[in-house]
Amino acid sequence: MGIRLRDDVFFSDPVSRISEYCEIEVYEGYDDRHTENNVIMQADIDSANNLYAMIDRYDKTESRRILEQSVRLSSLLAEIPFEAIYLYSDEEWADLKPKIEALLGKMISIRGVGVEKSMKILHLKRPELFPILDAYVIQFLTGKPLSSSPRDIGLAVKALDTSREIIRTQIMWFTELQRGLGNLPIPLTMVRLFDILCWTTYKWDMLGRTSAPRGVASKSLISYSKKEKPVPVKVKLIPSKAPVRTPESPSASSVVIDFFNVLSTKAKYGVRGEKPMAVLAVLEYLLKTRQIGVSFLDLLDYPYYERVRTTYIALAEKFGSFPDPSGSWSVITGRGMELQGLIVDDGRVDQAIANLSKKEIELTYKALMRSY
Predict the structure, then answer these.
(1) Which of 16, 315, 316, 335 could be 320's S-S partner, Cβ–Cβ 3.0 to 4.6 Å?
(2) Residues 142, 38: one domain?
(3) Which domain does 334 fall in, by range?
(4) Residue 223 within any structural domain of the chain
């Protein structure tokens, strides 16, 4: 048995990949919460948040806005059958796509709700039809990043087209894959198996980010070889490591300072709060070690994690207003990955940290230290 996702990505043992995902990533509280009907409820939002949809995380009115559109969403959702994605003929699929586009269009028109949040909800309503198309999966399938604009609907539909084609043409192997995972405590639908293979390929194999809430991926990693190393584009539009700057483009330093200021306005203790302190810790670590070219997310992962953590605790004990710096570090960077989620949502600061020169690191650090 083997499954080919792209010309350059082949799984000879997809059972091992899915099994490892279920061991170290999150799927309880989500994949066992399907509600196959036409009404989006608070329970669906709560379940989506268990898979890091982060609805209401930064704007407490997002779920209310979704539920206020429940009637309109229900009428559009009722147009979407419960059939599995691989069972649609070409003609049936062509008829269905405009209905999917209309549903997605209505969902992303709700302020704060993009394709990622929408798809995590829609999978719960149609678990055999909709894979979870987050930024990693869409980037992997289409080669383009999400942009928080109406253009994302087209990317999502293109990713659905590709998902349907891959599953249909290899339906025998996907069926075997499901059978081989019969011992999972929570069964996974075929589209969910597919999106997990795509998501882990992009995150674990292509980006090399193997850390997970309950461990580190190692047993099922595949050899990914390509002449050009893939650009690690994340969730929203992130510049390459050598961005072309126009006069209007913000400097890497200003992006980092803006991110710090945004975190400070949302933190309970302002600049002395947990997440602003983490930005300062990253800069101090880079300043002391004289390293450049390492992204923000990489600094929160192996092999930098423990050293940045130590820097954070020392700073927090000196400048922070919150108790238990060690515990707070685990809260914001551990299982829930709150800080990582904010970095991904920002779309610029991850690479901005890597783009800082040694002089810029020093100047940015000094600028932020004036807040204390």
Answers:
(1) 316
(2) yes
(3) 252-369
(4) no
| Whether 194 and 304 share a structural domain | no
- Exposure b/e, 25-41, CB count within 10 A at least 16 = b: bbbeebbebbeeebebb
Enumerate residues 6+ apart whose C-beta is below 8 A from 281.
Answer: 308, 311, 312, 315, 316
Q: Give which of 203, 265, 266 is closest to 235, Cα–Cα.
A: 203
Q: Are 29 and 50 in contact (CB under 8 A)?
A: yes
Say yes or no: 203 and 256 in one domain.
Answer: no
As a residue count, the chain comes to 372
Can you give the pTM of this predicted structure? 0.65
Give the integer Cα–Cα distance in Å for 213 and 142: 27
The token pair at 212 is 């997970």
- In angstroms, how far is the first alpha carbon of the chain from the final one? 59
What's the domain count of the chain?
A: 2
pLDDT in tens, 251-283: 899 999 999 999 988 877 788 999 999 999 999
